[in-house]
Amino acid sequence: MSRVVFLLIPRVHLLDVAGPAQVFSTAADLGYEHVLSYVSEETPVATVQGLPLHAELAWPHLEPDDLVIVPGWRGPARMARADTLYRLREHHAAGGTVAGVCAGADALGRAGLLDGRRCTTHHASQDELARLYPRARVVRDVLYVEDERVVTSAGVASGIDVALHLLSTRHGPYAAGRVARAMVVYARRQGASPQISAMLRHRGHDDETVHRIQNLIDTRFTERLPLSMLADAAGCSERTVTRLFRHATGLTPLAYQTALRLERAEHLLGQGATTETAAREAGFGDARMLRRLRARM
Question: Which segments cross the bilayer (predicted)?
Answer without folding.
Answer: none
